[in-house]
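chain below, 497 aa
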Amino acid sequence: MCTERGGGERGRSRGRRSVVRAAAVALLALLALGLAAANLAQGPRLRTAEVHPGLVVSRTDQRLVLRLNQPLEALAPGDVDVSPDAPFVLSTEGSDVTIRFTGMLATDTRYTVEALVRSAALGTTRTVGTAFTTADPPVTTLVGGERILEHRLGDPAATRTVLDAATLPGAPAIREFAASGDRLAVVTDALPTGGAVEPSGRTAPGSELRLVTVPARDGEAHGMSDPDAAGATAPGAAPRLPLIALDRLEQLRADPRGGLIGVVGSGTGTDGVARDRTLFLIDAAPGVDAPAVTALADADGTPLVVDDWRFVPGTGAVVVRDGSGRILLSESFPEARVTDLGLAGPGRAPELGALLPGGTALAVLDAAGGDARILELSGARTGDVRLPLPETSALVPSGAPAGGALHLDAGTVVDVVAASDGSERIELRTAAGSRTLYAPAAKDTRIGRICLSPNGERLAVERLPAQGGEASTSFLAIDGEAAAPRSVIGGAPSWCA
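prediction:
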């Protein structure tokens, strides 16, 4: 009897515990539902905001993605405010709001974004916001053939030496440079074996192309690691250098988006092959331990004679003007091919102008024909280039050579104008008129290369003193209202490469 009474009590106890547990679970579920309902009732909340501060100042069509905690109704453009003002296209998918900036943003600038969002479930609304500061990308200059300096236009104290020629074998003079990712390509004078210049002068080959690797800003004293220097380390595992040695190397350029470097070479190298203005393309992408060097050839395999050339950014393609004056597009994707763009002909002498900021549009100027046009080469991204290319008639420069005129768009051009007294100035012209952007304080100061920042916000002006002395570079705001002009030591600004 006692045993039976005890068993019944234990059964009743277990039953009570089950009821308590069930009640607790139900209560927790109700609390969870209540919290969820409360969250929904309070309106959507911002979880994360994603944007690349560097890409928004160097490329168009970059995105800011706002990720919220619940699905949303579609937003209208008026629901979003961007300050400072910047044009954008808006899309909503589920709980994500994507703001695609159609242009490029200003450098070193704090942007705030606010969006009025509405819950798809309950219709409750909330204003969410975020802020980000765009990058201040480096620009580099060459000082006396001896040093390459890196500058941050928003921070004068951040200037540093990224390469000193004294750290290279034989301490050769640096003639040209171009940057691609963490690698810096430099054309230097070649030195005889032993690193000493002979009394008779420079020996052939006269120029060498070297690659060095740039570590982080808190890296080595010179900010650069050379694989040929004794005891040097190479963060990017760069190969033994030089990559190319010829009598003459010139027109060194880089496409940082594609990790490519190119240079035009002439003369007879160590392989005994004679070259006449051959364009060499080098794959210097991160992770490539032994960069491949390819000589650009015509459709029949004959090396092209190249008078002038440009990369089509981010495509691996190049546009060249060959020795006969033809304008050619050379592509490597989806297969290697060379296309004559059909711009040359009787009464025409086309010259390559500058790429428009942020895209794949190229200005082509024709002094003989007296016109200018903007060619759109975006088809090179997918290997779908079809002739005739999309083009737009453009404002003709006022007399500057092709290399000294820059189109901001089809209706806006910046060029160098010479006055009757021999002085020079830089003008910005539109169909409505012109205004002076820059005039040297000394009339005998010559204007060298001019080029635009990647986002078209600033103009770099190389200044060459008439009586010798060190070149310098001034950086001017195109709109005349942004940051004050800044001047730095050194010429050959990297925006021009």
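Residues 428 and 434 are 6 Å apart (CA to CA). Residues 136-284 form one domain.
thats it, cya
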